[in-house]
Amino acid sequence: MINNASSVSNQVMTAGDRFMKKISDYYDELGYPVTWDGEGSRRKLEITFKSESGYFVKATLLARGDEIVIRDEWGREQLVKANRGNLQMIKGWSEER
Question: How far apart are CA 60 and CA 8, in angstroms?
Answer without folding.
Answer: 16
